[in-house]
Amino acid sequence: MRGGLLAMMKNNNACGRYKKFLAVPAIICVAGLIFSSVPASGGTVDIGALDNLNVLRKVFNLIKSDHIKKDVTEKELMTGAINGMLESLNDPYSRYLEPNNFKDMQSDTSGEFEGVGIVISVKNKMLTVVSPIDDTPAKRAGIKSGDKILKIDGSDTDKMTLHDAVTKMKGKKDSSVTLTIWRNEFREPKNFTLTRDVIPLKTVVSKMVDDKIGYVRISQFTETTSSDLEKELLKLEGNGIEAIILDLRDNPGGLLTAAVDVSRKFIDKGVIVTVKSRDGKTLNLSSYYRSHPLYPMVVLINKGSASSSEIVSGALQDNRRAILIGNKTFGKGVIQTVIPMENDAGLILTTAWYFTPAGRSIHHKGIEPDINIEQGLLSDEEAAEIYDNYSKDEELKTSGQIPGTAEGTPMADRLKKYGVKLYDTQMVRAIELLNGIRLESSTLSDKGIEPKVIASKNISPKAENDSPAK
Q1: How many CA atoms lie within 13 A of 342 on its CB side?
Q2: Residue 65 among the catalytic residues
Q3: Over 50: is that where the pLDDT of 457 sits?
Q4: Is residue 335 pLDDT above 90, yes or no?
Q5: How far apart are CA 327 and CA 308, in angstroms?
Q6: What is the pTM of this model?
Q7: Active-site residue 227, yes or no?
Q8: Where are the alpha helices (DSSP H) in 39-136?
Q9: Selected catalytic residue, list 123, 151, 170, 332
Q10: What pLDDT does 439 receive?
Q11: DSSP 8-state assignment for residue 221
Q12: CA nearest 166: which of 327, 29, 353, 359?
């Protein structure tokens, strides 16, 4: 398959092979992954010398004929051999899906499915939450990006594969599963009991967040994300927006092609991402046209922004198209190919690296925002309570040290009118920046209000010299 990935990306008609390229860090704990693939042939693969195959065959036959466990099946042995090979790669993203699970993965792109709505990965040898999916049991229960899952229904996860963890967490609507979670601020692990539900597949939503500022939230990158984004952008532009905020926080990624298509809507020309195969061959995926105005733009990111989200963020940052606000991203810089097998199973195999337009590899490193703004690990209710308490303090109330500027000012009143949560510090800072306001205010955390000079940059539509849309 040497060089085959890049060749097939250049020629999508190459026998329909390897049509889906994934840039996602983990398995979505619902009814499987949300990606599908068309049938593909594996091509010619060098799997080693004949004598090594003979050794494998001999071990296989000896287990069948002499091992005390007489009821072991050929299918179990073959699956174990395949999983053993994949585990030897020390690559949490490459995995083998048996026919039923692969079928689930394929069907999840075209309808509603049931589960808890968590994206997971293995980080530092621990089962880790990359992000909860919007409007799911996990999100509503308060599961956070970075949470460590120690147990699933009482079973330790330290020896589980990603597939085993998914199998334990998925299930029918209204059934429950208990996750034992460790979070840095916890004194001891805490149990979260989640009631499974139907997981929504809508990946793009938009709204106005100020008089001339539009907001777009992308929660995942699927086959329909680009077309859905087009509809939302046209709707916002019909409302006369002069700037835009793209929210990629807690977006675990998805299809590489979707990330490229989304980037092309904002970048008029230039490289979006560079894909490099194992033999060193590279392919630059670029944008050559402008489909929307180059209005000033801010992108919101955090540690739950992974893979395809990092492709988009890196492209916008390196092309000087947008200002990134938030926290450092997850750090996944490799791409997987979905390969259907002859027995109706599927292989998800890491086949390439990707690099940002400036040539950066972000694998295990993440993307640093241009403006780092901490967001306390609080639920909406907790943040609202703290905000309300501090907003009653007369000194703070008139000093402008409350997120969203001082209570009662035109800015705060305007944001409230548009339904902006004034304790969403990153969002408020993005709106302030696009309005040309010096970011000198405060950070809301579980410690209260912390005054801090964050940044000063004017990228309002009238500030041509500072606009990232140049």
Answers
A1: 3
A2: no
A3: no
A4: yes
A5: 16
A6: 0.71
A7: no
A8: 50-66, 74-88, 99-107
A9: 332
A10: 52
A11: B
A12: 29
For tokens 């790669």, the residue is 89
- 406-455 pLDDT per residue, tens: 445 567 778 888 888 877 889 988 998 898 875 543 343 444 434 333 33
Other CB atoms within 10 A of residue 182 CB: 14
Count of CB atoms within 10 A of residue 112's CB?
12
Q: How far apart are the C-alpha atoms of 459 and 298, rounded to whole Å?
A: 9
Burial class of residue 242 in the structure, from the number of CB atoms within 10 Å of its CB (0-12 exposed, 13-18 middle, 19+ buried): middle
| Other C-beta atoms lying within 10 Å of the C-beta of residue 453 | 10
- The tokens describing 364, both together, are 């295990």
| Residues contacting 323, CB < 8 A, separation 6+ | 297, 298, 299, 370, 371, 433, 457, 459, 468
User: Rg of the chain's alpha carbons, rounded to an integer?
Assistant: 24
- Angle between helical axes of 308-318 and 256-264 (0-180°, round to 10): 30
Catalytic residue among 36, 145, 263, 307: 307
Name the token pair of 228: 């859905």
Residue 255, strand partner residues: 22
Question: Is there a catalytic annotation at residue 197?
Answer: no
CA 207, CA 244: separation in Å to the nearest integer?
Answer: 10
Q: How far apart are CA 259 and CA 226, in angstroms?
A: 8
Q: Which of 228, 318, 391, 424 is catalytic?
A: 318
Select from 109, 90, 122, 128 the least CA-distant residue to 31.
Answer: 109
Query: At a CB cut-off of 8 Å and minimum separation 6, what does 92 contact?
Result: 26, 121, 122, 162
For 188-333, strand residue ranges (E) read 190-195, 197-199, 204-208, 213-218, 243-247, 254-255, 270-277, 282-287, 297-301, 323-326
**Are the CB atoms for 157 and 128 separated by under 8 Å?**
no
Residues 6+ apart with CB under 8 A from 93: 25, 26, 121, 332, 334, 336, 348, 350
CB half-sphere exposure, 238, CA atoms < 13 A: 8
* Tens of pLDDT, residues 289-323: 778 999 999 999 999 999 999 999 999 999 999 99
Contact predicate 430/439, CB 8 Å? no
Q: In 3D, which of 166, 163, 173, 165 has the Cα closest to residue 114?
A: 173
Question: Do the Cβ atoms of 233 and 218 come closer than 8 Å?
Answer: no
- Residue among 111, 116, 90 nearest 27 (CA): 116
Dihedral (C-alpha) 454, 460, 463, 469: value to the nearest 10 degrees?
100
